[in-house]
Amino acid sequence: MAMRILNPGLMTTIQDLGRYGYAHLGVTPAGAADALALRVANLLLGNDENTAALEMTLLGATVEFERAAMVALTGAQVECRLGTARAPMWKAFPVLPGAVLKCGAITGGARTYLAVQGGFRLKPAMGSVATLRSAHLGGLEGRALKAGDRLDVRHVDAIGVRRISRQALAYLESRRELRLTPGPQASWFGREGLERLQQGAYVVSGDSDRRGIRFQGEALALPPKSQLITEGISLGAMQVPPDGQPIILFVDQQTTGGYPKAANVIAVDLRHVAQLRPRDEVHFRMVTVDEALGLLREQEEWLRKAFD
Amino acid sequence: MRVIEASDSSMLVVFGDEISRELNRRVIRLFHDLQKYLGPEIRNLHPAYASLLIDFDPLRLPPAELRARIDELTGQSGMTSAEAARQAIEIPVCYGGELGPDLPDVAQHTGFSLEEVIARHSAAEYTVYFIGFSPGFPYMGGLPEALATPRLKTPRTSVPAGSVGIGGSQTGLYPMQWSGGWRLIGRTPMRMFDPEANPPSRLQPGDLVKFTPITRESFDRMAAGQTDEPKAGSSGTASSGTPGR
């Protein structure tokens, strides 16, 4: 049984939760930008959380199913149609043999996940099928999907689907205030610099992608003659190049870099970074690592209780 | 040594603020000590010139516990056995010609003849300080100062896989086709990065490296895959320390 890509949309890749354990070889994890949305999609379908799905960006894909399947759509709101019926979000639903699922513009965010029960039969590269386009790794030939691609769906004997409770859905709403912890070079920017970062609005620039989200707003001043020797970069690091406009390094980022890092997006807010669209306005707020870890525990607690 | 919380899920161990063999040796030692713990708790390790970034899952490994483990490991002295007996990995390189189009630039900048550049570049022993920038790309120390040549003003949009170059006071090679601004002086037929291999990268952080000049004929023969494990043909040394694959 297979799913055929009739139209790939703007940029659709196959992503699981990422390729870990190879940063020392220069290989960044990649993986779903909105990892929580992928995990929920898989849990709805009874899949393992790490099962790969389609990550669609700004414009959805159109796919055809050769046989019956169970499907789930999570992440940013998208208008998808099964024939004349509207496909639900955050809910597992069946598709019939020959069904065409047609997704249009993604609204209220940037990325939507299309997962199928059983997952796709793909050959992992270094333990993962996450697509890393810059290195041609994972997914289908390490590239974005194109019309005519065929993805084999792994057969599973009927497994139970789950439902997310109505109250639980509120947690999934998007945030435009990103919370940060201080980065390794935070002191370079001084208390004043970090204050300024939290005051004004920053606008997402059009040349943002999975490698990094670029912002335009009040420039951060770097101390004169500030030279950093190349060091490792963590996911969600806010790097400040000489022009002072911050860049949040993201899932396809390089493993090392030489620009100072003023701050780092906290783990639970990375999914909100994933949903930023060009021209979106955000604010930044500093929190402590303890607060960030409290919020992370809260998220995992939510996930355990989210399903009926 | 400073241990900094780089984020809620990563810890940066900084040994110093300069590029030196001494500092890098300490980075590599901690990297080797932590490498065996790679898994659900310690998710990724990023060694660099003088620091090691550790990505971890704070829900499985509380930051305080990781800090204690780092203190314990860095408190121990003495060389590990892996450090004591290391052999240089030999990488065959066809210098100059169309495979090394910038060799004349390097010769002109340094004042050496083409042959002298090749002789000096292949006589030196290099250390892989770390791998970053792109999969398998080694940052190496040990380039003779006399060979330092500035990078290209405009980087090439596509550098072929296996290209060996000089960028400022560094030398290195591009394991995959990529964009880049280093002066290309030669190319190796050896496959440096292969996701199917274990380990996928022929070079590892901390490795010692030597470049061995080969002829264009040997290059073509090796590139065609007739010799799976290229031996250093022209120099006659049989000690090609190819890593276990």
Description:
The complex is a heterodimer of chains A (about 300) and B (about 240). Chain A is of the alpha+beta class and about 300 residues long. Chain A has four helices and 18 strands. In chain A, the strands form three sheets. In chain A, strands 1, 2, 3, 4, 5, 6, 7, 8 and 9 form a nine-stranded antiparallel beta sheet that branches. In chain A, strands 10-17-14-15-12-11-18 form a seven-stranded mixed barrel. Chain A is globular. With about 240 residues, chain B is of the alpha+beta class. Chain B has two domains: about 80 residues, Gyrase A, domain 2 (2-Layer Sandwich); about 140 residues, Cyclophilin-like (Cyclophilin, Beta Barrel), CATH 2.40.100.10. Helix content of chain B is about 25%, strand content about 25%. Classes of the chains: A alpha+beta (about 300), B alpha+beta (about 240). Chains A and B meet through strand 13, strand 16, strand 17 and helix 4 of A and strand 1, strand 2, strand 3 and strand 4 of B.
Question: What's this, in brief?
Answer:
The complex is a heterodimer of chains A (308) and B (245). Chain A has helices spanning 35-45, 186-199, 270-274, 289-305, and strands at residues 2-7, 12-15, 53-57, 62-65, 69-82, 85-86, 93-95, 100-116, 150-152, 177-182, 202-204, 212-216, 231-232, 237-239, 247-249, 256-257, 261-265, 281-286.
